[in-house]
Amino acid sequence: MQDFDHLITNRPHEVRQVLISDLHLSMDEPALVQAFLMLIDDCIAIPKLERLFILGDWFEVWLGDDAYLSLNALEKKAHWLTPLIKKLTALKQNGCDILVMHGNRDFLLGQKFCDLFDGTLIFEPFTITINDQTFILEHGDALCTDDKKYQWFRKIIRNPLTQWYLLKKPLKKRLAIADNLRQKSQQDNAVKVKYIMDVNANAVDKSLQGAKALIHGHTHRPEHHEISANQSRFVLGDWRVIDGESRKPKVEAVIGVVIAENNIETDSTENFRLVKFCARV
Q: What is the reported pTM?
């Protein structure tokens, strides 16, 4: 698998779009936050980058936009999210659109937060076109239909009335609810067989329909799956801290990159590729 650093060092003018997923950022994992800031610096350095996609689970937990927006000026200045917002604003001002999708961890993320860096909240399925071929973008949790219990929970928690009710709760209460849900999820996942937490083939076929490829995250199993001679499924990887006890921990992730369409006759999947992103923080 090609390294992202090699790509932006040797072929920066060909990179048009970058797709990432499952960063699970939080104040408790500063290495992940620093690695994300380093990725944005790389994106700013790409001369013709058009779009950055964040396909869900950007944050480990999101209690609502008001958790940040309600802070006063001094609190915002000291907050761990502020450097991130400033860096994304610089990227947007550099001509790159920033598109953010909900994940199962940050489904309460709203457009008001995205407005801070002039980003856009998008919803799945979202389509992009590469070499006149349609690519479907999703977070990926909706594809895990064998996990009946989770899909039932997802249907309830994604209901606008449920979300309205949650956002009416005080932040302290929302935090307690989120902690309880996270603990319960960890307990449930510990006893589930692995295939239940992966995508279902029928769900993938239904999502693809006539599209060329499906791109998603969520499963933390990065891979390029050839479904048929004409269709593919690309899985983005989660962001992981390696050597976390060292003075300079390493963060690794598998991300997606769209390369310039130099030849209309080229298979569109050749213009999209999974690459390894590494950062020493």
A: 0.93
